[in-house]
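== Sequence and structure of one protein ==
=== Format: two labelled lines per protein ===
==== Data for this protein ====
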Amino acid sequence: MATQQGSVTAVSRSTAHHFSKEIAQSINLVAGLGVEHDAHAGVTVQHLPHLTQDASRPNLRQVHLIPYELLYELKSHGFDIKPGELGENITTYGLDLMALPQGTQLRFGDQATVAITGLRQPGPQIEKFKKGLLNQVSGNNNDGRSTTKAGVMGVVLAGGPVKGGDVVQVYLPAEPHRVLVPV
């Protein structure tokens, strides 16, 4: 049974390794690979910085999700960011993605399902995109540990179409819950 519900604000993809992704009317998720026709789709790592470390590692970053609420917050700090511009595939509304535990399943519409694997760790590209943005999406929490608000990453468990307006249902994993860490 779903524990929460939100919605999809926008979907994006890019066939090339660009920082931002183009808004699409819909995207198709492919089980075990990611977003069809997206440069980051694949069984093994596809993000350029990770390819140089170990190209044989499993791709835990098949789908990038960001809450629309982050874009709204950034706007209040002078950053006018549109969906897809931070490289996300799916922009959601009404879900605190960063607070969900590892292994949470997000079901889009009737079939497409993504399991959250971890946090997106923002890097120097985000600062090149807009100066000062890195400080807005990263910092330290009360116990001194590094935090990020740059979205979550996931793998596709069940394929299917995803489009703006789709309902997102949240299914938490069995306890004990594991806090998200960067992947």
Summary: The chain has a mean pLDDT of 93.
